[in-house]
Amino acid sequence: GAVVSQHPSWVICKSGTSVKIECRSLDFQATTMFWYRQFPKQSLMLMATSNEGSKATYEQGVEKDKFLINHASLTLSTLTVTSAHPEDSSFYICSASRGGESPLHFGNGTRLTVT
Amino acid sequence: DQQVKQNSPSLSVQEGRISILNCDYTNSMFDYFLWYKKYPAEGPTFLISISSIKDKNEDGRFTVFLNKSAKHLSLHIVPSQPGDSAVYFCAARGGTSYGKLTFGQGTILTVHP
Fold it and tell me: By CA distance, what is B4's nearest residue in A?
């Protein structure tokens, strides 16, 4: 069964507004979660590493002020796309691992469309 | 700089036959490799993985082969089923950050009845 839950599955928002996406690990605690983004017909690209109780680590080229990450508990990480623009339209996917050699499990993703 | 490459954008196979999906990598620091299956508008689903200390790992119909000298891995699905039709991503991990996966571009597998 699913081990990582992501909400919402899709969202349409107007340009300039902010959107929050939630990612939950369902039956395990995750001190670290990961946020990926996928553009159409492209690969999944890591955006940032969400660390419980501390600041997120962003990959090169990802604007930390635009993509706010909050990992307030061991089972919840949120990604807020601030002042969204049409170019932010994408498929955002979170992931978490039980740790060790366990594989990374992904949520079902959130399709963001900015009009 | 594409460190993980899946050079075949698509693959079409007849039901019951073998599907072979290929993946090449360039970073010699990668030590753990995974295959994921993905349907449209869904997150990837983990299929099978292999550590760099092995050259083969098998799980039911899925077998992953790793050739470190060639920096190449492949996923074999046998027998292929129509339900296997999806996008398959190979991913690699290296160093201490187990979550920092580098993905290939994906291969669309279509299994015809």
Answer: A43
Written as one letter, the residue type at A97 is S
The count of residues in chain B is 113
Check if the beta carbon of residue A68 is closer than 8 Å to that of residue A19: no
Q: In the numeric block, which tokens belong to residue B24?
A: 């090449």
Nearest CB to B44: which of A45, A100, A106? A106
pLDDT per residue as tens digits for the range A38-77: 988 788 999 999 988 888 999 999 999 999 999 988 899 9
User: How far apart are the CA of A82 and the nearest CA of chain B, in angstroms?
Assistant: 22
Whether B46 and A104 lie within 8 Å, measured CB to CB: yes
Token reading at B60: 């039911």
Please tell me whether residue B76 adopts helix, strand or coil conformation.
Answer: strand
Q: DSSP assignment, residue A22?
A: E
Q: Is the dihedral of CA A38, A45, B62, B14 positive or negative?
A: positive
Answer yes or no: do B41 and A46 touch at CB < 8 A: no
